[in-house]
Amino acid sequence: MPKVTIDGITIEVEEGTTIMNAARKVGGEIVPPAMCYYSKLNKSGGKCRTCLVEVTKGSEKDPRPMPKLVASCSTTVMDGMEVSNKTSQKVLDARKGVVEFLLINHPLDCPVCDQAGECDLQNLSYEHGTEGTRFEEKKRVFDKIDIGKYIQLHMTRCIMCYRCVYTADQITNERVHGVLKRGDASEIGTYIEKAIDNDFCGNVIDVCPVGALTDKTFRFKSRVWFLNPMDAHRNCDKCCGKAVVWMFGDEIYRVTGRKDQYAEVEEFICNTCRFETKDLAKWTIEGPRQISRESVISQGHYVTHLSKIENKNKEKIE
Amino acid sequence: MESLSNRSIQVSNKKMTFMERIYLPAIIGGMIVTFKHIFKKKATIKYPEQKRPVSDVYRGKHVLKRDENGAERCTACGLCAVACPAEAISMVAAERKNSEENLYREEKYAAVYEINMLRCIFCGLCEEACPKEAIFLTTEIVPTYFERKDFIYGKDRLVEQVDNRVDITKRQIKQSSNA
Question: Are residues A194 and A114 in the same domain?
Fold first, then answer.
């Protein structure tokens, strides 16, 4: 099994593991950010270039460093490879540049966008971007396409990560949307305004790292940080039924998949759960969802599980 | 126990002298002080006929600004509400219709925007949080009312009139064109 050293931490991983996944095995600060790579989707990654790392030593056999920064999501590890991520100034500079490029055509309409507060691009530019912009030209605009009653497409916000395309390809059986046109002019859309209607098409909302694909049933209803995310499940004949319900009082405002620390859903959920089951009686609430303290969603959200409080009270009583 | 700050004074209960007991010198002394104050400048003013000059950045009643074309700037992003330490602000967002471009600046707008002036502590954090330069505090003072419900200011009292703009240029650190 090859040994790889990332930012001074050595870990042994299986043959064929990418640098990204090796770093995720270690966890913490050394994990490169990812906008397009999605571990649950085959062939994803290699598009956004935010996960660039510097390979300072190629391998035990060939210790020469790699001449350029490599995308950690698609580069497999070699035995004795040494990688710098946060410790390399070159990487940090490159990432700053990548963020600038990603934001070139991004409208920065976060106050309007429903994704704000849980947006990967927001987090990325907060951590790696610069305060100002040097871009003075006109940002690209698109004709609005209606892609059905459940999903709202905002093409201007898209960063072309292709995650939704892979989702539609791999999770649903009838893909009707994809990338049209090329290069600078490429856009996500359906050919000849076809509505997306598949039982699992709602997952493109969860995989979208920005607010390009958002939930129409939740559109402008509230802001994510005013809601309380709760783990909940229900018996569903189409999917696992395990979801997060976003509540305001006793009302369910929206339903999403359970996202882990890398903003990837644990399991994909079906459209019935996501869009049509907003009745609290149909869900079994397990408890509050654990939200990172750094996230704005954690404001006003109590993460201590009720069972823990009850146990503490019991101890006190005894 | 000894005082740590060494600033406490022991209360004495000494017997008063004769001069102190007739109280007259003390009364006259007090009268002189009172008499002097008659000729001094008054500390109070006759509000509301008279008003004190306040600083340009005084934090009084809020205003929801319109842009140069008269469209409402507020996009109901909720940042003021999340910044508000007193939980005084609430809002309901709505989507702009096709014919309403001249009314609202962005795709989304606040259909309902309420500030509870009883809760508000006039800290100005909403003003600081606003990414759209929509909410500002003004030098105007929120008056008192007899009913609690009167203190809940809706958009009718917060949004500035198109023909009667509120000048907030003195509050802005720098004028930015894109907001």
Answer: yes
- pLDDT of residue A287 exceeding 50, the answer is yes
CATH code of the domain covering residue B131: 3.30.70.3270
Domain limit, last residue, from A170, A195, A220: A220
CB nearest to A220's CB, from B79, B82, B95: B95
Q: Is the ipTM of this complex over 0.90?
A: no
Q: How many residues does chain B have?
A: 179
Within 13 Å, how many C-alpha atoms sit on residue B97's CB side? 3
Whether B17 and B25 have beta carbons less than 8 Å apart is answered as no
Q: What pLDDT does B178 receive?
A: 47
Does residue B178 lie within any of the structural domains? no
For A59, other C-beta atoms within 10 Å of its C-beta total 16
**With a CB-CB cutoff of 8 Å, which residues 77-106 of chain B face chain A?**
77-79, 81-82, 93-95, 106
Would you list the DSSP string of chain B?
Answer: ---SSS---PPP-PPP-HHHHT-HHHHHHHHHHHHHHHTSPPS---TTTS-----TT---SEEE-B-TTS-B------HHHHH-TT--EEEEEEEPPGGGTTTBSSSEEEEEEEEETTT-----HHHHH-TTS-EEE-SPPP---SSGGGGEE-HHHHBPBTTBPPP-GGG-SS--S--
In chain A, positions 108-127, which contact chain B (CB-CB < 8 Å)?
Answer: 109-112, 116
> Does residue B52 fall inside a structural domain?
no
Contact residues, chain B, for A116 at CB < 8 Å: 77
pLDDT of B2 over the 80 cut: no
Residue of A nearest to B91 (CA): A222
Average pLDDT of the residues in B72-86 = 93
Query: Hey, are the CB atoms on B106 and A109 less than 8 Å from each other?
Result: yes
Element (H, E) at A121: helix A120-128
Mutate to test the interface with A, among B72, B82, B92 (most CBs of A within 10 A): B82
Nearest residue on chain A to B94, alpha-carbon basis: A220
Same domain, A151 and A238: no
* Final residue of a structural domain among A48, A81, A100: A100
Q: Measured at the alpha carbon of residue A39, what is the angle toward residues A35 and A40, in degrees to the nearest 5?
A: 115
Nearest to B91 by CA among B106, B103, B102, B80: B80
The number of domains in chain A is 3
Which residues of chain B neighbour A299 with C-beta distances below 8 Å? Answer: 82
* More confident site: B136 or B176: B136
